[in-house]
Write a structure and sequence with these properties.
Length: 373
Amino acid sequence: MWRTDHTAAASRSSSDASSPPLRLVFWETTAGCNLECVHCRRLEVSRKLMKTDLTTAQARQLIEQVAAVGRPVMVFSGGEPLMRPDIFELAACAKDTGLLTALASNGTMIEAAVAWQIAGAGFDRVSVSLDGADADTHDRFRGQPGVFDRAVEALEHLHRVGVPTQINCTIARHDKDQIEAVLQLAERIGAVAVHYFLLVPVGCGLKIARDQMLDADEVEDRLNLIADLQCQTALQIKPTCAPHYWRIIRQRGKQQDQPLPEPHRRNGALHSLTRGCLAGTAVCFVSHRGQVFPCGYLPVAAGDVRVQDFGQIWRTSPLFAELRDVGRLTGKCGQCEFKTVCGGCRARAFHRFGDYLAEEPSCAFEPSRISRS
């Protein structure tokens, strides 16, 4: 069953008082991009700006409405956000409202002069994608030679002008043995964080899922490695689209409710999201057209900022209300003793079962309730 109709669930929508704090808003500033990556979550990527992108006026309205909900981090993503000619104007607008801002780029457009513009716009952090620790691995995955070197140069330019940087790395079969090497690269070039993204089979990623998706046991192994590395580095490490990581951390600590070890608690506002799937609960995604989704990988819309107030969508969406209630999870996730700290990836569940409340298909853990039955 494809869960796309929320009319019947309207009576269960969350109230203003019960909606959780909004922590991160990813805004897809444009679907336009200068690359055509084989794992992109989009299918309709264009090498130019899209006519359906929010206008400057609409974008300003979105920023103001987000700021009215709280003080989340607003991530300017894409596509490639630096393709928008008004990107620095909009970043300044966000800063004026008091929002923390981040820029998510492929790095290929960040030359020295652009790095100075980014610094002047006041971005609190810039993430650059590196899907491997060397040029051969990254460039083959990205489908274009030379992009690894340009991304590394971008990180170096940003470091020189004092902008905190983060490496975003997609973990799949092509680079599953380079996790530690990516961290070492980040340390050498002065990045402050590495976020490891487990591949989600959506958009162009569907085409490579059969060959590139890790199986559940491989995921478990790689997440345990990341947990080991977290305790060996001063950098901020965060597995993303890998909610079972937080179950693993609790298991390694022996007690589900004990506080996280210090390396998993530090790092401030930009790294304070220490639980599993946050889609619709602390995070949401606004598409270049203005549609609001739980995350960039779960293609079920909660509303549209072109016709609705963003705050109303966040507070009252029946879709978000369902995602915020872990008691509605089914399958293994519904019976799991770690569901409140993990919750399973709702996007992978939707891809596999057509139901975003179904069990996480990339998890090897067997809940004790199932094991005893």
